[in-house]
Design goal:
Layout lengths: L2 H58 L4 H6 L7 H13 L6 E6 L11 H12 L6 E7 L2 E11 L6 H4 L7 H7 L12 E10 L1 H52 L15 H23 L1
Antiparallel strand pairs: 1-4, 2-3, 3-4
């Protein structure tokens, strides 16, 4: 096995180990960054929903008190306003979802489906819990969900959700008496759930990973070629020439010219030593003659 082959085998093994380690670390970092981006988007959307709820409750509803005495206006309900705002958003981005999933909702569209009901139940079982995050598969791909509990902390909510008799007649006429009643102060009745798609950030992370790995392979190939050229010029060729000269000298042919020492590195020292050995051997042979 030649010196060049040994050198290349070691270089390939080192590169392979470095490629695997770099690929693993970079993959984890890029996926973590993608996850953080999705989480930030979810938190931003949740903040927007809370802002719409607060604006509706504090500024819109008080302006509609006279109209609410004559007819029920869903637009005055914070949950309805937040949901409608996101429904408008979903016309351009259908992969994003927002729902105020409730076990016993006034509006039937807010009724929690099975996986949403599980989240609500977790909040009901642990009243100190303020947030749940996770991922799930959807028809549009993998999505991250962020959920916060809907807890009845304002006594002002109870007149509409205690009993049909105490609720506004216009609301009862609009939604009926079957749902949305029996809520208690301090009870967790549902959860705000934001779903944000992970496909786009993960696709970007995969693209960045492929670009990084391709660049890394390209850098290795360039380094591999440069190192082989340098090895050939500075090590292999001088040693091959020296080996051939040693073969000639060993058969008594002293007409081989001495090596020109052009460097002070190990190859230069070896060439100087070889020239000294050659001259010594030539003198010894002449003395024997």
């Amino acid at each position: 096995m030649g010196l060049r082959l040994k050198f290349n085998l070691v270089l390939i093994v080192v590169f392979a180990l470095g490629l695997v380690a770099s690929g693993y670390v970079s993959k984890r970092i890029l996926e973590a960054n993608a996850q953080e981006e999705v989480t930030r988007n979810a938190e931003l959307m949740m903040g927007a929903a809370l802002a719409v709820r607060g604006y509706t409750s504090k500024q819109v509803k008080p302006q509609l008190e006279l109209q609410l005495m004559r007819a029920f206006l869903p637009q005055s309900v914070p949950a309805y306003a937040a949901t409608e705002m996101f429904n408008t958003l979903r016309q351009q981005h259908p992969e994003y979802t927002y729902k105020e999933a409730t076990l016993n909702p006034t509006n039937p569209r807010d009724r929690a489906v099975e996986w949403e009901a599980d989240i609500v139940q977790q909040f009901r079982n642990d009243s100190a819990r303020t947030e749940i995050r996770g991922t799930r598969d959807t028809p549009t791909g993998r999505a991250l969900y962020l959920a916060k509990p809907l807890k009845i902390s304002d006594p002002g909510c109870l007149p509409c959700h205690d009993t049909p008799d105490t609720a506004p007649k216009s609301m009862v006429a609009h939604y009926g008496t079957a749902n949305g009643f029996g809520w208690k102060l301090g009870e967790t009745v549902g959860a705000q759930i934001i779903s944000v798609p992970m496909s786009v950030p993960l696709a970007k992370a995969d693209q960045a990973f492929r670009t990084f790995m391709t660049s890394l392979v390209g850098v290795f190939l360039l380094a591999f070629i440069v190192l082989n050229v340098v090895l050939s010029l500075l090590v292999i060729r001088p040693i091959v020439r020296m080996s051939r000269a040693a073969d000639e000298v060993s058969t008594g042919n002293f007409d081989v010219p001495e090596f020109s020492v052009g460097s002070r590195d190990e190859i230069g020292v070896l060439a100087t030593s070889f020239n000294r050995l050659r001259r010594s051997l030539e003198k010894a042979m002449k003395l024997l003659e």
